Structures are given as C-alpha cells and as structure tokens.
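Hey, resending since the last one bounced:
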Amino acid sequence: VSIIRGVLTIQRMTTFTQTWKIQNRAAKDKTLVIEYPKNTSRSLLSPKEPYEQTDSLYRFKTSAKPGLSEFKVSEQQPGTETVALLGSRAANILYYVSFDKVTPTVRAALQKAADLRQKVDAIQSDIATATQQKNEIENGQGRLRDNIDTVGRDTPQGQRYLQKLLEGEDGIDRLADQITKSQAQLKLAQTDLENYLKNLQVE
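The structure tokens again:
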C-alpha cells in the first residue's frame, strides 16, 4: 500500500488453488493427465510448467499411487486498486488503516488524512444544520407577517406576533453570521486537507 499525491494504491496478489482427489483402486501406480482451463490473467505458481498446453488449457501429468492421493494446481493473479483520498469519506479512509500490510508510515498518513476529512465533514454538518434552522425561521416569518396583517399590529395578539417576528429576525441574523464564519472555516479546512494530500508521498 502506498500514497502518492493523494492517491492510495493497493497492490494485491491473489492465489487460486484447485485440488483433485484421486482414487486409484489398482495395485500399481497409474499415470493421470489432468486438463485445466487456462486463465491468461493468472500465472502458474505450481506446478511450474504443465506437461502440455494449448491456447485454452493446461495439461498436467501426475502419478496416481494406489489408494487416495491429491494433485494441486496453484495460480497467482496480481491486482491493483487506486483510491482518490480527497474525495473519500473519513470512514472509507480509516478502513485501509486496518490492513495488515500497511506500514506504520502509511497508517499514520491515512489517520491524519481521516482526521482532516472529519474536520471538513464536521464543519459541513454545522453549516447544513444552521442553514436548515435559518430556512425554518424564514418560513415562519412569512406566517407571522400574515397573522399580523390579519389581527392588526396594535392588538395584544398582534404585538405578540410582532415580538416573535423581531426575535426571528435576530435569529436569522445570528445564523447568517454563523454560516458565514463556518464557510470561512470550511475553506481553510478544505485547503489544509488538499495541501496535505497533494504533498503526501509514503509507502
């Protein structure tokens, strides 16, 4: 596992093994030829070489002793996975921290990237919450104005509606100020994450 300029690269080697159980009821050894489909994306691990091969299959020759015996074919297939960390959620980044083959250096880098991502996510969540609250107050302000028009500004009920209207305006101003500050914090947090990943090169 390595990280170069914010791209996590995972190189895997998968081993495939097929086992045949061979029952030889005769009293002497017999020669057995096994045909096995060829997969061009895999390489033979064992046996090293087939007895024969065609474009589509391998042929393996083995000696089957009296009684029960086994014959195995093992293959390996390399694979590569790449992940753009900048667009990944913190939970997805932390998933790779648990990999056995991750070096301490890569693990520490992934943890820091996840921490920076979590900071961005937390600020985005705060902005979303404040925006929703602001929208709800603004929607209520329209209803309060309609109520004031209906009962009259100078009536006791109209005065209560007016007081709520003014309190709502204060709340809208506070939330708007909070959103503006959070957006500035978000920009800084996103820049910190981008700069960290852009200059990151570990393996």
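Helices lie at 90-97, 104-151, 156-198.

Sorry for the duplicate.
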